[in-house]
């Protein structure tokens, strides 16, 4: 975890470790930047020497050539040093972006399902794209511009004071106007940019959801409706950006105005000083050159303020995301309790109750259930808590102490990942990555050989269809398996769970899209594979519960029936209705299902 409640994460805590690791690179980069500034400041002194020599008639053609050569050499060295500071410092900003992105991604992988229930993919993607880009700009060009402007401003003012303190005072007279306007505009820029980032999150999430669900949109001919909604979100995003641009558009002109006001005063009073010979013509030319240099720092104030506000706003959003912590508690001791190496796993629910965060009522209430080696079947109407029970067994949501035990140990005393590594889970909605079929099946067991993978695919009755693809197991499936049927996606997910070969198998109505003939083939093939495993099998089809040694009926979050097929047929009206609706009313059928 990146943080804990007693030690809030700060922007400095995110940035400083990266700065420390790359300090030599930064020192070299800023050394090159200072070298550029040094030669920039030397050139006006060379110009002064040439102008004064011309005015006094003491400079020769050779002397002018020498001064020109020195200016050319300084310009060449500035070009070389500019390359180095850009490579070193801007390169560092890209490294910083990469490191924060890696940290953000790693942190997201530690968060549990409850977090993703309340955060859209679009919002998270906005953090990894727009926000990180703003931080990179602030820590790259923003940092360079700030240091460069400060050095040029301080050194330039020093040279100007050396030439004429009174003229320098006149040149900086309009400066308070810049400071006041920048302070007022910066606060507005922060608020407006924060709103723009939120609008970008909404736009990204809408686009992602629309592309993912494109087939559904086409079926319902909703393309034009979605296009109008997307256009509306886009217009709101543009309006927000224009509001930000309005602030930015004021920062630069204000800085330029201040610079030009100073220039006007210097031209008038400095020209008089030169005419009166109180300063040399060379001093006046050098002073004007330094003042021209000061226009950049004054304009940089607006630009750097803009980049800094954007960067701090975005960094604050990233820090808030890094501050999010898993709702599942880690055990007090670092290692926690150990389940051991035994492949015999037993779950015990003792008064298990659960409600989703923000929901009004409990989804599960007072569940007492033993799930040991063997097959436990679960049936019940929609919304009865079947999937929630699977989620809790897979340790996807937090539960109170002493309600769920694994091999007699309270699961809250065991690290969640230690529990999950014992479980293979096939959910109702099978998720597949946009990768090869082989990569999807091997997800839970990357080191598995081809024969093992083929065996799992045959049990799941998907091997023949895989071989029907041109590239077989190396065929690329689209995003979320979009180019596969629902039944094919479910069977690939089942093959993935079987190849993982873990002692606990949770199957949550995962063959609902499979036809009856294929289902029967899978049931027959599964029989031997499930031996000695702890299996929780949720299904609306009683044929899937053929090998269940116990069947549980859930209704409204409570167990309303538990026992063999015959017992439930006699005692539970809901179960009896299922049997009758599926045409299994005879004694022979009941015995078959109850075996």
Concise structural overview:
The protein has 595 residues and is of the alpha/beta class.
Strand content: 5-15%
Return the structural class.
Answer: alpha/beta
Order of helices and strands: HHHHHHHHHHEEEHEEHEHHHHEHEEEHHH
Largest sheet: 6 strands, mixed
Q: So what's the overall shape?
A: elongated
Poorly predicted residue ranges: 1-6, 585-595
**Name given to the CATH architecture of the largest domain:** Up-down Bundle
Number of domains: 2
Span between termini: 48 Å
Which range best describes the helical content: under 10%, 10-25%, 25-40%, 40-55%, 55-70% or over 70%? Answer: 55-70%
Radius of gyration: 35 Å
Total of DSSP H or I helical runs spanning 4+ residues? 20
Report the strand count. Answer: 10
**On the 0-100 scale, what is the average pLDDT?**
83
Topology:
Layout (H helix, E strand, L loop, with lengths): L10 H11 L1 H34 L4 H50 L2 H5 L3 H43 L1 H7 L3 H38 L1 H6 L3 H53 L5 H43 L23 E8 L9 E8 L2 E6 L6 H8 L10 E3 L2 E2 L5 H5 L2 E4 L10 H5 L8 H10 L3 H5 L18 H15 L3 E5 L7 H14 L4 E5 L11 E6 L2 E6 L1 H7 L1 H9 L5 H8 L1
Parallel strand pairs: 3-8, 3-9, 6-7, 7-8
Antiparallel strand pairs: 1-2, 1-4, 4-5, 9-10
């Amino acid at each position: 975890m990146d943080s804990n409640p007693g030690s809030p994460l700060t922007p400095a805590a995110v940035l400083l470790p990266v700065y420390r690791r790359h300090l030599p690179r930064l020192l070299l980069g800023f050394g090159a930047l200072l070298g550029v500034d040094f030669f920039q400041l030397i050139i006006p002194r060379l110009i002064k020497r040439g102008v004064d020599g011309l005015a006094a008639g003491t400079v020769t053609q050779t002397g002018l050539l020498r001064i020109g050569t020195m200016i050319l050499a300084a310009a060449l060295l500035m070009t070389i040093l500019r390359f180095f500071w850009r490579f070193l410092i801007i390169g560092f900003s890209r490294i910083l972006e990469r490191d924060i992105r890696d940290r953000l991604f790693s942190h997201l992988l530690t968060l549990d399902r409850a977090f993703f229930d309340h955060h859209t993919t679009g919002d998270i993607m906005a953090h990894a794209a727009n926000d990180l880009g703003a931080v990179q700009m602030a820590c790259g060009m923003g940092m360079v511009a700030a240091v460069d402007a400060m050095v040029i401003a301080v050194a330039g003012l020093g040279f100007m004071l050396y030439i004429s303190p009174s003229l320098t005072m006149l040149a900086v007279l309009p400066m308070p106007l810049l400071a006041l306007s920048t302070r007022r505009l910066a606060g507005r820029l922060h608020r407006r940019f924060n709103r723009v980032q939120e609008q970008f999150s909404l736009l990204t999430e809408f686009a992602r959801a629309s592309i993912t669900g494109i087939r559904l949109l086409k079926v319902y001919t909703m393309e034009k409706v979605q296009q109008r909604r997307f256009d509306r979100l886009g217009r709101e995003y543009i309006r927000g950006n224009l509001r930000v641009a309005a602030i930015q558009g004021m920062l630069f002109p204000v800085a330029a105005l201040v610079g030009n006001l100073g220039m006007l005063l210097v031209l008038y009073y400095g020209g008089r000083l030169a005419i009166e010979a109180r300063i040399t013509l060379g001093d006046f030319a050098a002073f004007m050159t330094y003042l021209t240099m000061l226009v950049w720092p004054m304009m940089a104030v607006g630009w750097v303020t803009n980049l800094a506000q954007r960067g701090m706003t975005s960094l604050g959003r990233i820090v808030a995301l890094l501050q999010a912590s898993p709702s599942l508690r880690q055990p007090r001791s670092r290692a926690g309790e150990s389940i051991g190496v035994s492949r015999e796993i037993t779950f015990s629910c003792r008064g298990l109750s659960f409600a989703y965060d923000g929901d009004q009522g409990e989804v599960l209430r007072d569940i007492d259930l033993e799930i040991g080696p063997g097959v436990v079947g679960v049936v019940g109407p929609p919304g009865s808590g079947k999937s929630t029970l699977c989620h809790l067994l897979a340790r996807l949501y937090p539960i109170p102490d002493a309600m769920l035990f694994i091999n007699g140990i309270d699961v809250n005393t065991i690290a969640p990942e230690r529990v999950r590594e014992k479980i293979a889970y096939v959910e109702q909605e099978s998720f597949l990555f946009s990768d090869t079929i082989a990569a999807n099946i091997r997800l839970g067991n990357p080191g598995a050989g081809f024969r093992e993978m083929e065996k799992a695919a045959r049990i799941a009755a998907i091997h023949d269809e895989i071989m029907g693809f041109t590239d077989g197991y190396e065929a690329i499936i689209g995003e979320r398996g979009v180019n596969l049927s629902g039944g094919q996606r479910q069977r690939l997910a089942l093959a993935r769970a079987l190849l993982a070969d873990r002692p606990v198998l949770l199957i949550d109505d995962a063959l609902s899209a499979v036809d009856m003939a294929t289902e029967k083939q899978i049931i027959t093939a599964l029989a031997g594979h499930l031996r000695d495993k702890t299996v929780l099998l949720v299904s609306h089809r009683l044929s899937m519960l053929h090998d269940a040694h116990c069947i549980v009926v859930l209704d409204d979050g409570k167990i309303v029936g538990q026992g063999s097929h015959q017992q439930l047929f006699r005692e539970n009206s809901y179960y009896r209705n299922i049997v009758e609706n599926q045409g299994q009313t005879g004694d022979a059928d009941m015995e078959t299902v109850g075996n």
